[in-house]
């Protein structure tokens, strides 16, 4: 069976697949012209949505496409075909995303940046630190990654709140409400962590009206999608003290333009879309597991509902 790998790290993926399943005929590249030539007779595609979307635009199409990203927005652009099986990367980002979130939550509680500033000023900073115990954390987006983050945070005696497309009961969350209740829950949260996918319903939801409902002591972490945030409203909310700070991993335009206000916004830290990189070894394992399911005619892990967009 022929597999097309469209990845900047295509050599690594090709080596992993060949070692695990030598009978696979692997064709790999990250060059757009070469990919178009290789894709024609490959029924299975594995790779980055930004490299594979142009192939779909050219009229090439797989039977099944396994994305190496959790987000598959480039493959949902209007005009691209949807009559193939598409799976996104699931089950491989939970721990690394939890480590990212926990890093900045602890840095916030321990006032790490303020202590660094004190050192630069040669000021002995003996303020007592705070603890995560008893803090309320709102995870907006309680899917595969959001649930994993919650499970990693639970041992820190944190009260976990969640927001999903529809209300549900889901441990270890105390409550999972629908998007309509986002305003009510951000007013209670010490940390608001956005992990929502990019859909029409999740664009521009973090606006001036919502930021005005935040606790002034709250930290906002966006590791979901940049389009969920109205940039100017976040900058204004930080300036006006509606929240204590923001850690922004994803932006509407990446790399962020040099003149964008995020670079100089008070209390805002940029992390350059580094929160949860794909680990090729885990991604290869997911692909091979889904390949077995595909060959057996079973349901695939992470299969996308094109109507929902995830």
UniProtKB/TrEMBL annotation:
Membrane-crossing residue ranges in chain numbering: none
GO terms, molecular function: NAD binding; oxidoreductase activity
Domain D-isomer specific 2-hydroxyacid dehydrogenase NAD-binding: 103-274
InterPro entries per record: D-isomer_DH_NAD-bd, NAD(P)-bd_dom_sf
Keyword terms of this UniProt record: NAD, Oxidoreductase
Source superkingdom: Bacteria
Protein name: D-2-hydroxyacid dehydrogenase
């Amino acid at each position: 069976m022929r597999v097309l790998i469209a990845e900047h790290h295509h050599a690594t993926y090709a080596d992993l697949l060949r070692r695990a399943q030598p009978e696979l005929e692997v064709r790999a590249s990250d060059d757009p012209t070469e990919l178009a030539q290789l894709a024609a007779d490959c029924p299975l595609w594995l790779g980055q949505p930004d490299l594979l979307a142009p192939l779909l635009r050219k009229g090439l199409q797989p039977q099944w496409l396994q994305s190496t990203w959790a987000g598959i927005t480039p493959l949902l652009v209007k005009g691209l075909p949807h009559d193939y099986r598409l799976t996104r990367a699931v089950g491989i980002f939970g721990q690394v995303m939890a480590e990212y979130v926990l890093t900045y939550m602890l840095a916030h509680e321990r006032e790490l940046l303020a202590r660094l500033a004190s050192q630069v000023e040669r000021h002995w900073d003996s303020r007592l630190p705070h603890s995560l115990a008893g803090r309320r954390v709102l995870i907006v987006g309680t899917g595969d990654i959001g649930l994993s983050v919650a499970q990693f945070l639970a041992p820190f005696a944190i009260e976990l709140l969640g927001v999903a497309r529809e209300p549900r009961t889901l441990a270890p969350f105390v409550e999972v409400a629908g998007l309509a209740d986002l305003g009510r829950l951000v007013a209670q949260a010490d940390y608001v962590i956005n992990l929502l996918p990019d859909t029409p319903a999740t664009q521009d939801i973090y606006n001036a009206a919502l930021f005005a409902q935040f606790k002034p002591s709250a930290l906002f972490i966006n590791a979901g999608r940049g389009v969920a945030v109205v940039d100017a409203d976040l900058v204004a909310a930080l300036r006006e003290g509606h929240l204590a700070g923001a850690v922004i991993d994803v932006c509407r335009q990446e790399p962020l333009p040099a003149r964008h206000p995020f670079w100089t916004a008070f209390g805002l830290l940029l992390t350059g879309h580094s929160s949860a990189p794909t680990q090729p070894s885990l991604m290869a394992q997911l692909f091979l597991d889904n390949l077995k399911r595909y060959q057996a005619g079973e349901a695939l892990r992470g299969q996308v509902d094109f109507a929902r967009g995830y």
